[in-house]
Write a structure and sequence with these properties.
alpha/beta; Rossmann fold; 2 domains; eleven-stranded mixed sheet; 9 helices; about 20% strand; elongated; Universal stress protein; UspA; Rossmann-like_a/b/a_fold
Length: about 300
Amino acid sequence: MLYYAPILNPLSKIQPFKTLLFGFAFSPSLEVNIMEVTRIAYYFNARLILLHVGEKTAEKEAQIEGLLRSVEYPENHLEVHWMEGNPVKTIVNACSTLEVDLLVLGALQHENMYQFYVGTIARNLTRKVNCSVLLMIKPSAIRVASQHVVVNGFDDPSTPLALLKAFEISNVLGVQQITIVEEITEKELHITVEDDETLEKAALLKEQLKQKEEARVRRIIENIPDHLKSNVAVKIQSIFGKRGYSIGHYAEVVRADLLVMNAPNKSGLLDRIFPHDIEYILSDLPTDVLIVRDRK
């Protein structure tokens, strides 16, 4: 195991996540992923663990050591671990035993191009780990400033945490705008449009639902610490459409730098429903995606 003494970001006291784990493979994108994840750890003021599930060889070790010498923040609190076994089980166990609160995985945007950790493995990890997951589709060797974060405003007990993390991340990265998207399904209208009268009723009900959902989101925002809201513009956007698909499409259209979503609920009926919502996003990632889970 390689170990570097902790030199955390002196510019920020905010820690959106305290311990990051990056599961890496020796792929062509390894160098740029390492550059991006070490930068993220620096801005998040976090400990960083790099984990390779596979055989440790002198050649592989030399390669990773060489890459770490060339990163922007080479002395940030960093460890390198080597483990063998089933990738999903090994990473799930590592996230638990190493007290990881954010698992970072490199990803390619479209499902038919997924490699190694992306695709089935990433989906399994997203549902099985006890921490948040960041899927990166556009790592950069040189920092590209983030401008816009989109976060879901679902009527769900875990939404306040997702919003808090979105504001914390926006603060440390200097993001200019946060858009909170509330997806309202057509089923909530309970009206079949058949003529001008039902069309008018549907329009009125849409407006009522929109106002109700925006009021609920504003109540959540009120509980976000003021210092996290002072330097970012906040917009609430209601969208009528298929849950999961609509917010992913919106994030892509507005060219968001990050989409923040609630994690799948692991119990009962919600566990069977949520995959249908998140599946649209995981199968065709619109941008970098952060799936927030409260680590217990």
